[in-house]
């Protein structure tokens, strides 16, 4: 047995408060980070390329004469694609094809209708002109994230996808560049941190200003994205990754232990929770955890994550398991049960739902098709996976016929005068037939 | 002629910079406001109803013994509906019916598909459980905003819509309450400011915590919404309202002047811009402005808005007018031209597009059907009108068959090992057939 994964039961009197403290996550911003980020944003906004070059020299220890040296050509991306091992290239291409296929179904069409007096109403859908994709460099450089962020943008019809990826000390990750080639990224700059976010938001002499910035990053990147929100759109600010597994007790406990590990290995703040009505099964998974942990490459991270934020929770039945899940609104929800379809109606909030014993969450991270950028920290209560809809926007269409303007102008006039907005009223009244 | 509305022409050499300074809008946050809002949020979060009562006493000069006295019953809303003038009640009901009809077409359906090996992929759409609606009190109490914010939530299927509206000195606006009754708002509290936002975000003993807060408010409300973002969802942070009118020169100049006024009367920061290839028409509209201004109830606000932020811009042709419009990405765009459909393809960014001479923007504010909550300050480049989609969220569905898990597990394994995430790899590999 591992000494230290929290055990809870919904039957205990303090369950609600125990669960609340397990889920508590301090995302308060660091004053020092804030000040530093504001300084970087201001410098890049006012001094452009020169400031980006300075910060890149300072933080990534890259000394170059001009921004042009920090842009990677299409040829360079294709070289990376040719250089990576065959099995990785094929796997990236297979994953990209499935991700593209799924996301094409999210494409929204414009629509319109005409009412009885000839007035036209509708909604016009257009892609963003340009999107920026932040890709972390160094250890946590994930080619899968390039696919998951760039493909929805291209499916949406975004004309230009601009990727930034820091290359500290000049270390370039070929698999990341290969993924960019496969996903159809249009331009790549080897810059990172708040300076890259600033360059994408404000534009510089070399880096084009984008309309929205997506992709994960460290605290400096997240803080910079929060600051530039409004100038550009941003995707969500992600918290630590989480998984909630609901199991009826009949899945191999080793499988479940490994599913919990697959979340825990991300970092020490990641959260892995198992919920089951079967107490003996929770014991069995705890034993599997103890048995498998020493065999893991990222053992220390997993151990710290499980000890600090993991839990095994016993519930009365699967109905109650769904209630606990709705309370948590998990990023990833595995329904490792005999009949996942039967549970689906009870699940109100989750980023992605993995149905049945064969659906390891890891499949969704790479190649199932749906996006792996998902709402964390309970935000699945009100937000959605990254999707094609994040790279499209809508414009309302209104075209009144003369008789429609006459009829509805009378309504608008009454309401505008009721609100004391008489220019509104008179503007509508001009279109009323005398 | 009015002495002071800016005239620009795309033919002038400094047009780009002149346009940029016209559009510049300082939305930097006030440090004092920030501190005050953080204090209020903290107090309400930790002390609940007691803090809300204190702040309401202080800011709205309402002294009551308990939060219960600050809740308005359904009976009270129905009384308001019965009390307002007949023409206002009918107009509200007609507007609500059209808004409901339009928004029902935005409803998104869940979907799923099965691939060749029996793997199921899809997207499940669910409404938010509970939405909060902020309605300003006092002078700027707009019943139309109640309809525009509450109806999409109810159409989306939100079970409980909680409205807050401050009633300084106990002054209640019956038309606002009548609109709440018509829109189907579930609960109404007469609280406002940052304390109302905090109550909705964190919940108190009496006010239920919501999942998303929408609706306009003053700087304290906007700052509080920005602060609680992440705990709950929020709609956009609105800047000043804007209209861009493109006219071919053949609309009655009085109509166009009044359309510009209808935006300018909102407040002195509102922005009204007319673009036309016809210089003589710009002169005629300027004359109409001078003639009509003295007849307006809100003359001083309109005059200040037009002088400070308005402009008449001459362009070479309608093609160039569309380019100027795309550069601005206006909240409201009026195409007051002979063939608006012909221009539509050139328009890439706008919150709402009003097509043809009869389609006064004011009609869209009240009763056309589409929402009047629209992206401001150029954010139409990446965001959309408030809609049913803002009150729904998506969960990805993934259900692998045994053979699908075998096939795609191999792909996931290669990619996970390429990223150094071996627990991910082993979790997928457990589902591969030996």
From TrEMBL, chains A, B:
| Reaction equation(s) it catalyzes | L-histidinol + 2 NAD(+) + H2O = L-histidine + 2 NADH + 3 H(+)
Q: Which InterPro entries match?
A: Ald_DH/histidinol_DH, Histidinol_DH_CS, Histidinol_DH_monofunct, Hstdl_DH
For this record, the Gene Ontology CC terms, alphabetical, are: cytosol
Give the UniProt keywords, A-Z: Amino-acid biosynthesis, Histidine biosynthesis, Metal-binding, NAD, Oxidoreductase, Zinc
Q: Which residues bind Zn(2+)?
A: 263, 266, 365, 424
Explain how, and how many, cofactor molecules are bound. Answer: Binds 1 zinc ion per subunit.
Give the pathway.
Answer: Amino-acid biosynthesis; L-histidine biosynthesis; L-histidine from 5-phospho-alpha-D-ribose 1-diphosphate: step 9/9
Q: Which PANTHER family match?
A: HISTIDINE BIOSYNTHESIS TRIFUNCTIONAL PROTEIN, HISTIDINOL DEHYDROGENASE HDH
Q: What does this protein do?
A: Catalyzes the sequential NAD-dependent oxidations of L-histidinol to L-histidinaldehyde and then to L-histidine.
Q: What is this protein called?
A: Histidinol dehydrogenase
Q: Which gene encodes it?
A: hisD
């Amino acid at each position: 047995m591992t000494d230290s994964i929290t055990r809870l039961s919904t039957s205990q009197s303090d369950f609600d408060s125990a669960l609340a403290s397990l889920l508590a996550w301090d995302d308060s911003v660091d004053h020092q980070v804030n000040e530093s980020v504001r300084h970087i944003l201001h410098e890049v906004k006012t001094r452009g390329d020169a400031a980006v070059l300075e910060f890149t020299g300072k933080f990534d220890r890259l000394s170059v004469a001009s921004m042009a040296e920090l842009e990677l050509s299409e040829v360079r991306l294709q070289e990376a694609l040719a250089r990576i091992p065959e099995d990785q290239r094929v796997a990236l291409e297979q994953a990209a094809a499935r991700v593209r296929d799924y996301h094409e179904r999210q494409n929204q069409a414009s629509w319109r209708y005409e009412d009885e007096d000839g007035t036209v109403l509708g909604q016009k859908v257009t892609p963003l002109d340009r999107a920026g994709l932040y890709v972390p460099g160094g250890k946590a450089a994930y080619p899968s994230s390039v696919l998951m962020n760039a493909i929805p943008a291209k499916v949406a019809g975004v004309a230009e996808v601009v990727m930034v990826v820091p290359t500290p000390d000049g270390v370039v990750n070929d698999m990341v560049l290969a993924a960019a080639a496969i996903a159809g990224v249009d331009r790549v700059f080897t810059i990172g941190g708040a300076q890259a976010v600033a360059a994408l938001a404000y534009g510089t002499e070399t880096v084009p200003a984008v309309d929205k910035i997506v992709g994960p990053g460290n605290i400096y990147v997240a803080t910079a994205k929060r600051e530039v929100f409004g100038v550009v759109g941003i995707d969500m600010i992600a918290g630590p990754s989480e998984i909630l597994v609901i199991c009826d007790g009949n899945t191999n406990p080793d499988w479940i232990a490994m599913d919990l590990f697959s979340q825990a290995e991300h970092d020490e703040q990641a959260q892995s929770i198992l919920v089951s009505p079967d107490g003996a099964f929770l014991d069995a998974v705890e034993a599997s955890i103890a048995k498998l942990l020493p065999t893991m490459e990222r053992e220390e991270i997993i151990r710290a994550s499980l000890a600090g934020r993991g839990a095994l929770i016993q519930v009365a039945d699967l109905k109650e398991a769904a209630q606990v899940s709705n309370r948590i609104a998990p990023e990833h929800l595995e329904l490792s049960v005999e009949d996942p379809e039967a549970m689906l109606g009870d699940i109100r909030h989750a980023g992605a739902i993995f149905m049945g014993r064969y659906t390891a969450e890891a499949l969704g991270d790479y190649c199932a098709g749906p996006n792996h950028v998902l709402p964390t920290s309970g935000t699945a209560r009100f937000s959605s996976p990254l999707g094609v809809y994040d790279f499209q926007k809508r414009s309302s269409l209104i075209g009144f016929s003369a008789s429609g303007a006459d009829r509805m102008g009378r309504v608008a006039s009454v309401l505008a005068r009721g609100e004391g907005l008489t220019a509104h009223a008179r503007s509508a009244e001009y279109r009323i037939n005398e």
